[in-house]
């Protein structure tokens, strides 16, 4: 049977066209036995009718004279009802028989309805040819550029490795954290290798984008760097407070070099190389040390030390103020120890405002005020510094970054 809409072949008992989905209205075939019974029933009924088309009198229902209506007339009415009821019963029986026959001998409509996965993959199509058609269609699609390749295969390495990415014409984008690369990621320049020089697991992914902007599939490799870790260096001076100049000494293992930083960052092979004892800076400092294997480049654990170097305070604030006034009198800035100033009424006073670490030493910072005859105190803008260890006096300046610096009094 063909579809009345698209002309496609329709399997027997299908209620939808497998090609266009058109619903196929099929009149069920009746059982011949049922049809014969219907014909016999109708023939028997017709044989009982007289030539006028009415049922004979003997088929009428007879009523007693006591009834409220004419029996003969009523018999005609009930006779007509009998005919009607018989016909309706025959029709109902025929209809029910047809439905039962259809349900027993037909498949479920859902089995042939378009869109059902179990049918769509096989209906009207040979499985082998369907597979071949799918492959042929895929071969006609544009495949785009080939995915990049890597100079080092996935695996575990006990030394640092350098990896190059190779691909056709276009730009190579890559990541080393396992994330699929995009056009916003790093471009491989084809010259400088990607270096993996620290222990860990890295997933390198790359794509090639050709001149038309078509992307390749993602290429991926995984590297585990497991280099032998050298012993951490031994630092002789422990963290703590120091009040005298101190040298920081480090003991290194054979086959390693030690590198360090003093700015709080983690040291690497590019940091300052330790070649001998290092002078402890005055004030607060943080040292970080690491040993680097000379052959593999592997890094040891980082060793950190915190130091606080401040000389012993040998000069009190009162003594420092006295040293300052004495020197100012000697230099001619003051007339006498009372702070009198030539050509000006009133006198100068000096107050300690803070203690600062300046040029590898601790200093009292003094601010100069001029005391007027009315008792008012006005800053002169001059600052002085007195070393808390030896009492040396200096003029104090402030550079463009806000740091103090010392100047000799002239």
Automatic annotation (TrEMBL):
Region (Disordered) residue ranges read 109-153
Outline the extent of the GH29D-like beta-sandwich domain: 153-219, 238-303
Assigned keywords, A-Z: Membrane, Transmembrane, Transmembrane helix
Comp. bias regions, Polar residues: 109-121
Membrane as a keyword?
yes
Write out the transmembrane intervals: 83-104
Q: Which InterPro entries match?
A: GH29D-like_dom, Zinc_ribbon_dom
Domain called Zinc-ribbon: residue spans: 2-22
Instruction: Kindly provide the name given to this protein in its UniProt entry.
Output: Zinc-ribbon domain-containing protein
Supply the source organism for this entry.
Answer: Butyrivibrio fibrisolvens DSM 3071
């Amino acid at each position: 049977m063909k579809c009345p809409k698209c002309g496609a072949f329709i399997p027997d008992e299908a209620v939808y066209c497998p090609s266009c989905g058109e619903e196929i209205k099929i009149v069920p075939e009746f059982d011949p036995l049922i049809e014969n019974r219907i014909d016999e029933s109708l023939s028997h009924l017709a044989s009982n009718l007289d030539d006028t088309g009415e049922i004979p009198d003997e088929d009428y229902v007879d009523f007693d004279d006591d009834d409220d209506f004419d029996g003969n007339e009523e018999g005609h009415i009930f006779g007509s009802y009998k005919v009607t009821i018989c016909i309706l019963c025959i029709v109902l029986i025929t209809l029910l028989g047809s439905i039962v026959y259809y349900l027993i001998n037909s498949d479920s409509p859902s089995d042939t309805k378009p869109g059902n996965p179990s049918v769509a993959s096989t209906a009207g199509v040979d499985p082998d040819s369907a597979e071949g058609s799918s492959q042929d269609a895929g071969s006609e699609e544009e495949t785009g550029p080939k995915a990049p390749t890597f100079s080092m295969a996935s695996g575990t390495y006990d030394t640092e490795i350098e990896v190059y990415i190779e691909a056709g014409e276009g730009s190579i984008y890559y990541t080393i954290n396992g994330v699929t690369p995009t056009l916003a990621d790093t471009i491989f320049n084809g010259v400088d290798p990607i270096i993996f020089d620290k222990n860990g697991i890295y997933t390198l992914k790359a794509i090639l984008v050709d001149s038309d902007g078509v992307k390749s599939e993602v290429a991926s490799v995984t590297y585990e760097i497991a280099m032998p870790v050298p012993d951490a260096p031994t630092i002789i001076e422990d963290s703590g407070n120091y009040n005298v100049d101190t040298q920081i000494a480090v003991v290194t293992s054979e086959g390693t070099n030690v590198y360090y930083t003093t700015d709080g960052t983690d040291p690497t092979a590019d940091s300052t190389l330790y070649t001998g004892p290092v002078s402890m800076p005055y004030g607060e400092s943080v040292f970080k040390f690491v040993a680097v294997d000379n052959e593999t480049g592997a890094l040891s654990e980082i060793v950190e030390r915190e130091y606080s170097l401040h000389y012993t305070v040998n000069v009190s604030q009162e003594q420092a103020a006295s040293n300052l006034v004495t020197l100012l009198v000697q230099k001619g800035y003051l007339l006498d120890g009372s702070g009198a100033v030539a050509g000006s009424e009133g006198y100068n006073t000096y107050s300690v405002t803070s203690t600062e670490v300046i040029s590898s030493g601790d200093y009292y910072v003094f601010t100069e005020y001029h005391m007027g005859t009315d008792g008012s105190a006005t800053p002169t803008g001059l600052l002085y510094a007195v070393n808390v260890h030896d009492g040396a006096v200096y003029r104090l300046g402030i550079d463009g970054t806000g740091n103090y610096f010392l100047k000799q009094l002239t």
